[in-house]
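2 proteins. here.
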Amino acid sequence: MRPIQARISVGAMAHNLRVARSHAGTACVFAVVKANAYGHGLSRALRALAAADGFAVLTLEEAANLRLMGVEKPILLLEGIFGADEIATCAELDLWPVLHHAAHLDWLQQQPPARPLQVFLKFDSGMHRLGFPLADHAAVVARVRSLPGVAGITLMTHFAQADEAAGVDWQLQPFLREMAGHDLTWSSANSAALLRYPETLGAWVRPGIMLYGASPFAEVSAEQLGLRPAMTLQSEIISVQTLQPGEGVGYGQLFRAERAMRVGVVACGYADGYPRHALTSTPVLVNGCVSRTLGRVSMDMLCVDLSECANAGVGTPVVLWGEGLPVDAVAAAAGTSSYELLCALAARVPVEEVA
């Protein structure tokens, strides 16, 4: 069999949830498991994150799958509903939709659910993506409170720069100031805010990327945060080539040797989820030896430098990211984020679940 494999640790995810819980204080924890649990497998993540107080997903289909898997805890629909016909399903499955635009309120008024819903009412505090304008808060809250189809309200916002120097105050303080008179619980903290800004905790926190062992911060490693990598993408060297000075390797010959050198060809490419735009010097781990990629990533293969890995040859194991090589480091070198790398794991890559 082709040697590529993703090893996914349920123990690491459970550990990372405990780290999240240690920062959450009295707040309840929604484990964000959208996008197939960031590429880690929904059913696998549910077992690993069973101690969460609830789960957050994107679509009604994901939420329905959770209920079919036996989840009885709260399920939050992060993008809300996409049509009035979904209201009845939310009531049937006891889902908590995020309401973020006027049509949601119109639908609830026109087609009230058989059983009133717990809703999260989202306000735009500056990210300018989803949410009612903060300036409209009084009218919006009053209208939602008047709807017979609403059983309870949690106020909500989302931070644009919790992982950057700008921080959260420029959004958090206006949000809290405007919402202070409503006497309602609130939710604002993603992974970065949960780890760095305890004033954002509210009633519910919503950690995502940290549960899978990646850092939300460019300048702080996952290890420094006490997180463990949940996914290790690994393969093997399947061929060794020797380049002479001036010779190139791969499509476009983007890398040319300055001296005689050995090059390992690894069974992993962009069709497996490795980023095609990762150019020369993206880190890899060759049998525990830190090395680098060379040239352009192919659909099924990539090349690595064996100059400092004297004993490497065909069959030598290679870690593309995970244990011993943080996914954040690979993402930074490739000019992308750990979110993209983890979510892009291809269906053709075999997965082994480990403790």
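next one coming up
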Amino acid sequence: MSSQTNNNKLAIKFRCPKELEGLLPQPIPANLGVPDWLKSMPTTAFSALNQQDDDTIKRCPPFIDAMTCGFLIPLICDLKVEDGEIVWDNDIPPGGEIDFPRSPISFHDQSQLTGSPLFEADRFVIKFHNLWTIEAPEGYALFFTHPVNRFDLPFTTLSGLVDCDRYRDSWIHFPAHWHDTSFRGVLPKGTPIAQCIPVKREGWAGQTSAFTEDEAQKVQALHAALKREPGMYRRKFRA
């Protein structure tokens, strides 16, 4: 089975049970899921320290590129959170050819986190259910993590790396730490619960050395150019 589209781009394949087609919110390219706060924030702001207008993170390519790479996996239905309880009303039809979770979340027992910084004796870790199987092209794994730079979300999804070129015929669910205990309200259907980023499996070796004289001159020249020309990385180095 090919993992390439007609225009020869590599493709991540998302599949769901046929009775859920059209009912589940679909995974989307991360560049289509930019949050409203990023869209509305200014590109420059006055710096009291520098006494001038400086660029905000909205004009920082590495910050934006991290947020817009890969795909976002959506929450399958609204979650209502109130007084320590999470409730939902999900329209998943009964029956079907295969068994799959009918609820949007379940829980990890806190004992699984014993010895980790996330352990709290009186709290569970939630697990978001994802009803899409996910297939990566041959030779690629997928790095699943919290939606990048989404500090506004009341939970933090734990990170994991899955060999989705091989493990492609079952569900991948996402454990998450609900850190905002004061949250009250609705976490809406479609909220990104995880970001998946393709990672090609390759062997890597680390090399360390001191600058040569020529390398030191190049570092100094680039450092000076970056000071002279705001936005230079975006214009000359960004792929």
